[in-house]
Amino acid sequence: MGKAGRRKRRQAESQGRRDEIRRGDLREREQARRAARAATKQDLAWFQRQGGGVQTLVVLGSIAAAVGGHFLLWGAVFPALGAAVGRVPVVSTVTGWLFGGGAFLAWGVVAVNHKTATPRTTARLRTVAWVWSAVAVLLVPTGYANDVLLPVDFWAGVYAGAYGMLLSPVALGVVALGWWLLVTKLFKHKGEPSTETIGWICVGYSVLLLVWGSTLLRA
C-alpha cells in the first residue's frame, strides 16, 4: 500500500504539472490572440473602427458638409475672390486654377517625394493633398455654379480645375493606355510605373489644366 500510494501521489503531481503547463500555454495563446486583435484594430482607419451608427452619422454629416461647402464656395468665396484678383488676368486664372488643379499638383508632390521625404513630412504632405482634394470635390459645376457670375479669367481657371477633376478618370485611362502602348509594347519595359513617375504624371496633368484654362477658353 505504501508504494502504491506514493506512486499515485507522483502520478497526481505529474498530472498537475502537465495541467498547469497546459493552462499556461492556453493563457499565452489567448493573450497573443488578444494582442493580435488589438494590433489589427489599431491598423484600421478611424472610420473602420467605428460602429455602424457612427459610420452612418459620419457619412450623412460629410454629405451635408459637401453640399453646404459647395454653395458657400460658389456663392460667397468665388465672387469675392474673383473680384479681388479679376483685374490681373494671369493672377486671376492661376488663382481659380489652384482650387482644382492644385489638388493634382499636391498629390504629385506627395508621390515624387514619397521615397526621399521623412515619414513626418510625408504625412503632412498627404494631409494637405487630402484637404485640397476635398476642396476640389466642391467645384462640381452644378446648375447653381453655372449661374454665378465671375470674371472671365478667374472663371477659366476654376472651369479648368473643375472639369479636370471630372475628367480625371478618363485621363487616367488614357495614361494607362499610353503607358501600355509606348512603354510596355514599344520599349519593352516590364513592370509598373514607379511612384515618382506617377507623381510627375500628376504634375503634368495639373500643368495641362492650367494651360487649358489660360489658352483654350479664350477662343
UniProtKB/TrEMBL annotation:
Basic residues biased stretches: 1-10
Transmembrane segments: 57-82, 94-113, 125-144, 156-182, 198-217
Composition-biased stretches (Basic and acidic residues): 11-28
Location of region: Disordered: 1-28
Keyword terms: Membrane, Transmembrane, Transmembrane helix
Keyword Transmembrane carried by entry: yes
Protein name: Yip1-like protein
